[in-house]
């Protein structure tokens, strides 16, 4: 069976629930009353514009080879500069993906959109603050025209709004790789010349803690990467083409794509964000489930995994300066928020590490704010335990005190 969008993955984190329990609690029972994944009212970023599309208050524009793609990005406030190109055959449209016809992924803080030339739909993964990732397909044409009516039986006759298709997507996106819940996946594989993963060589599930020489297998990587060694831009068993590219023009015909880039900085941010999404969702689910079942739960241990990841603990050092060339850095940084001195958690370092101030910008998301009170309290307490002894504590605390309204008073500078 072909696999759906592969965005990012990670191992199960330590908590008060065992791996065996996780499989039963989450993977098999997402409709538990404490969760109600399929029936709970949605608050993800696609649900509201989707209602406007249904009742005619908004419209999508079909434009060129990519169809509705640019219009979807505009509707969801996703920058074209975030484009990343993956050429490994690791998704629903594996038959048409190749190093000559990569799949492009675009993202903001809560939504990822994927498109490949020749695909009859745009794929969307949208993060609901409480429910996790919600999966949608947007038909590019009539399903009957494209032979996909079996995938989209609820396709409306009056237009192409986003259609929720969790059942199709959760075949891959509800697994240990997504922390046992509807989440995101990103893998680095060893692709053959046709894009098929060389399974005998294994693969790597990637996030910001992954060694750089294990990242981006099956992805194009553009930018000025200096001495950074990685698996991008190459096929196996002969990785002779692991070169550095400013654009992907030398690899493919970019005239049908929205961008000429697969930006290295966008890839690094995406890796961080995808696991952060899963961790925040998981913590909320665990607390809600434990409260409903009145079962003991080690909240401090569960929060610690979120805290360590949020503060970039165990992030490997960059071997030297890197630079994105797509404009993503500027688009990402300008969103703020900034403290009274003009500093932001969205500012980059890119010489020794990813972020100048190593505290995740995801602290500003609806997903963080929607955590149960006791979960958020435990995360803040854990953050302070780390920050209270950190060398760069003052700058991070000052930024948070100016930009995060519910920050506890005990966050103080020296």
Keywords:
414 residues; alpha+beta; 2 domains; six-stranded antiparallel β-sheet; two-stranded antiparallel sheet; 11 helices; 8 strands; 28% helix; disordered N terminus
Structure in words:
Helix content is 28%, strand content 9%. By secondary structure, the protein is an alpha+beta fold. It folds into 2 domains: 19-264, no CATH class; 298-403, no CATH class. The protein has a 6-stranded antiparallel beta sheet with strand order 1-2-3-4-5-6, with helices on both faces. Strands 7-8 form a two-stranded antiparallel ribbon. A hairpin with a 3-residue loop joins strand 4 and strand 5. The longest helix has 30 residues, at 264-293. Mean pLDDT is 86; it is low at 1-25.
Q: Which segments are poorly predicted (pLDDT under 50) over 5 or more consecutive residues?
A: 1-25
Instruction: Encode the helix/strand succession as letters.
Output: HHHEEEEEHEHEEHHHHHH
How many domain units?
2
How big is the Rg? Answer: 21 Å
What is the strand tally?
8
Q: For the largest sheet, list the strands in their spatial order.
A: 1-2-3-4-5-6
Helix and strand arrangement:
Layout lengths: L18 H9 L19 H8 L14 H8 L7 E3 L16 E5 L3 E6 L4 E8 L3 E8 L3 H4 L16 E2 L1 H8 L13 E3 L13 E3 L58 H30 L5 H12 L17 H6 L32 H4 L3 H15 L5 H11 L11
Helix pairs in contact: 6-7, 7-10
